[in-house]
Design a protein that fits this description.
Layout: H1 5-28, E1 84-88, H2 93-104, E2 108-113, H3 117-129, E3 134-138, H4 144-158, E4 163-166, H5 182-203, E5 212-216, H6 220-223, H7 229-249, E6 255-261, H8 275-279, H9 293-304, H10 306-309, E7 316-319
Parallel strand pairs: 1-2, 1-4, 2-3, 4-5, 5-6, 6-7
Length: 323
């Protein structure tokens, strides 16, 4: 039995009324281009940026505008008091910002880096300015022996190791799978996967109950990236590595988690992208701008601190500027 004709006409009229109401709202709405979102303690730079490109591995001191890493409104509260942390790729970008906040929370911090001597020196000074001990060790995380020696040097200098942050990465775009050379592919996988694996192997024997490993993943490991085929593969692998290692180390009381950032204003991108693309970096996310390193670093504090995340392991925390 169908709907009564009068009732059917009433329903149709009601739907037309709703349609008219929405049309009026559409007419009143502001259709101008949305502005980049500012929701932090201070305003952050927005695109367009100066067009720029750097040779690998990139230098923070040459980047314009300078990445914001010092988080002047972030107040430490002893979340990592007495801890010792080791951060790969700690000379610049996310690694530097994490080093500063770890120190502000009471940790002594060692950083590993390639050849970016000036950036590493600046990071050491920033850690020491927080009243903590710092050391910088140059080398390549693709080298298993270097990873073992670096961890041993940190333990010898600081007496122990509580937190490992795997953050060093290699990224260069290729638009076509046929242009991705074996040399390029190997460099990405060896740095981003072997490096994390070698560092974890070297660190785990020194980590005690309550220690933490934090891996830097990426939104590309969640969504893929047509221009970063190899890089996306490694970041997806890092996410799987995080969950798998977390399961292995749970009986030892060692937590393993990952942060998966979206676009972040660091030397990694101007040393990858073409200059004109750098000028518009981060515009594609809902917030219409890249994150600054100091906006990402508190997540690492959260995942490192036993006061904050003692019941969290095997998680991937995306910080991607909206969905």
């Amino acid at each position: 039995m169908g709907m009564h004709p009068n009732a059917a006409e009433q329903t149709a009229e009601k739907q037309r009324d709703i349609q008219a109401q929405v049309a009026q709202a559409d007419a009143r709405s502001d259709n101008s281009k949305p502005k980049p979102m500012q929701a932090g303690a201070r305003a952050y730079p927005v695109p367009p940026f100066p067009a720029q490109h750097q040779p690998k591995p990139g230098a923070e001191y040459k980047l314009e505008p300078a990445p914001m890493y010092d988080a002047p409104f972030y107040k430490g509260s002893g979340k990592l008091e007495g801890k010792v942390a080791l951060i790969t790729g700690g000379d610049s970008g996310i690694g530097r910002a994490v080093a500063v906040l770890f120190a502000r929370e009471g940790a002594d911090v060692a950083i590993l880096h390639l050849q970016e001597g000036r950036d590493a020196e600046d990071t050491v000074k920033a850690i020491e300015a927080e009243g903590r001990r710092a050391m910088a060790i140059p080398g390549d995380v693709k080298d298993r022996v270097f990873c073992q020696k670096a961890v041993a040097a940190v333990v010898e200098a600081f007496g122990k190791l509580d937190v490992l942050v795997n953050n060093a990465a290699f990224q260069v775009h290729t638009a076509d799978v046929l242009d991705l050379t074996e040399e390029h592919f190997d460099e990405t996988l060896k740095t981003n996967l072997y490096g994390y694996f070698f560092m974890a192997q070297a660190a785990v024997p020194h980590l005690k109950e309550g220690s933490a490993i934090i891996n830097t993943g990426s939104v590309t490991g969640l969504e893929g990236s047509k221009a970063l085929l190899d890089y996306s593969m490694t970041k997806g692998g890092i996410h799987a590595f995080t969950r798998s290692l977390a399961s292995q180390l749970t009986p030892k009381g060692i937590r393993v988690n990952a942060v998966a950032p979206g676009p972040v204003w660091t030397p990694l991108n101007p040393s990858d992208k073409e200059a004109d693309d750098v000028a518009h970096f981060g515009e594609e996310v809902p917030m219409k701008r890249p994150a600054q390193p100091e906006e990402i670093a508190p997540a690492y504090v959260f995942l490192a601190s036993p006061q904050c995340s003692s019941y969290i392991t095997g998680e991937i925390l995306p910080i991607i500027g909206g969905y």
